[in-house]
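Re: duplicated header lines in exported structure tokens

Our pipeline writes sequence and tokens for each protein into one text file. With two proteins the header for the second block appears twice in some exports. Here is an export where it did not happen, for reference. First protein block:
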Amino acid sequence: MRCVFVFFMLLVLSSDVFAASVCTHVDRDWLAKQVPPLPGEAKIVYKKEQGVLCEVVLAMDGKLVPLYVGKDFVLVGKLFRDKKFITGETIDALKDVASRERIEANEKKALKKEKRKAYFKQNLKVLEDLTLFSFKPAKADKFLYVVTDPNCYYCKELMPDLEMLAMENHLEIKVIVFPVLGPKSRNMAVQAICEKYSYEDYEQIQYQPDTPGCSQADLLLKKTMPFFSGAGLSGVPVVISGDGTWVVEGNDIAQVKQHLGLASDDGSGGSAEGPQNQ
């Protein structure tokens, strides 16, 4: 009788262990409570027990991101066991999933860009109203808009190339300040607006903490922030043609030249994307 009871207790305990999978509690909502804000399109495409951890693969922006989850924590990294690269084997097994996610993400990006281009074309007057200052060579008879953040490395990298392009092709560069990278950027934008910076001043801008605000900055940024948020814009720089027929996102000067019908000097461009919103 005692043996039967012991067997019964072992069976119950074993059932509890199997029922309480280390992956049971893991879903998107639980992950969102443990890690920094997840992109809206992030989704779980794979879950599997790996000993005391749950191996989870997230699809985000067309990429697969492996995570290892415990009861109340999340690890980001690579798992090895018995000299086997477990993470690598998992990602290799998900090649078809990765390909589908990449294609879907690229299609979504292309669609968003087309919608932004249409949005800007329909709102050229707003772009003009948001322009803070410009770089205008002699005899300039055409113009471009460039959307920048005063604390953006890629924007600063692009501007000299745009200036050279402007001087060689009689283009005016109209600058719109969109402080998308956080409080420091906003502070620098307020500084430029309230102190009535020229284009040359803006090129040399340095962060000054505790910059006093002004009504002009409040009004301009009150228009700027929701306007570009409405376009779904989260990165800078962005170059927009004067008539809104084309848009280049990122600091790729070769693309700008291509849209203008100009040959690129070396056929190479800058990075495809600017820094993203934090």
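Second protein block, exported in the same file:
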Amino acid sequence: MSIFIQTRNRVSKFLQAFFRKKRTRIGIYGPPNAGKTTLANRIARDWTGEEMGQVSEIPHETRRASRKSDITISGSNGSSITIDIVDTPGVTTKIDYMEFLEYGVTRDEAVVRAREATEGVAEAMHWLREDIDGVIYMLDSTEDPFMQVNIMMIGIIESRNLPVIIAANKIDLPAATPQRIRSAFPQHPVIPISCLEGKNVEDLYEKMVNHFR
């Protein structure tokens, strides 16, 4: 092979790598049991036909971050975005093994779960510092949005200048008041949704396509 052809091939490969479309890595964050894995499963299922993780009523069922790559979401105007979804463990300021006992978990298993959940929170924060390009922050719209962990997390996300969409989940429940979340965080877009029933999820997809580009 001539030097010219070798050089041309190297340049071609370099240009292909340089101009390859960058995938946006979107982290789903929020307190335990806000619906993070339910949303991750719905996004993955709607756009790839596959799910990401196991859902449970037990807090901290997700104790390690999981990622699904190459999810292309399309908007109504023909635009699209290709993302990697990162489903993270629930972030909280305190994890006590006693809370697992209420769900029939043995003491030994509860201690293990608490340790793994604590490690998972550290891992989630590492992702946020190093490898996340945008955030969907999940909140249970039946709960008080002014919890310390939410104020802390939104502050950290803002300090990194990351685009964030707040998903006010569980609007299918009678006690849901997504307006409280809008009042708590007026500086960010808030999309009321029901991950379980799929209500308003299309609105979230539209916002993702435009907000995370």
